[in-house]
Task: structure prediction
Amino acid sequence: MNGVLTIARREIQSYFASPIAYTIIVIVLLIMGFGFLRGLIPYSALFAADAATATEAGINIRNYIFREIIFWAQISMMLCLPALSMRLLSEEKKNGTAELLMTSPLTTTQLVLGKYLGAVSILGMILALCSVFPVVLELLAEPEWPAVGTAFLGMLLYGMVILAIGLFASSLTENQIIALLITYVIFLPLWLVDSVVGFMGGPLDEILAGLALGKMVRMLGQGLVDSHHLFLPVFLISVFLFLCVQVLESNRWR
Result:
């Protein structure tokens, strides 16, 4: 466990030693802030016009505010997190330090988990800073805090899937741009499949719905927790971390 934490701490320090972490944090916060305002402005306008009618019509925090925040959170993470993960192993290979890590007392699993934990820590910092949005809402409206909690859980799991895919992509090449492109090639179908659910019909539609990450985030954002919503991201994270370990093991014994 100490080895995992050492690698994670090393990654966090390297992120903040360059503009990478600061840039990604600012971009994600700006995009999510845009979504927050898109949801807040119409809610405020409708509530100010006729609070009683707005309440009777079911205008609430989930429909008018967190729907926008969650959508734009997905966009911001999809754009920014692959840039966070593309360097995790690619940079080590390019700089020639991968061999040193491979010959260290650390196991391959410890190395992968440490790298992954470092990237997830940055994601956690981003979401912690985003907690200002529900705090502001507490002053202006009455947020449904259980839904807020599950929404943040959904965004965390969504981001963790992207980082796991990005780490795997980074293990395949020393070129960070190629790692970035591989991440998008793998992740985009999982995100876009939500748009075709309902058109296929039959068992295929159920299979596609089961692979739809966007639906998972949306349902958790509404406070609807199902075991499948938790199983899908955990399964994907486990698969891509396992594949990453296998790639590094094969490289170690070449």
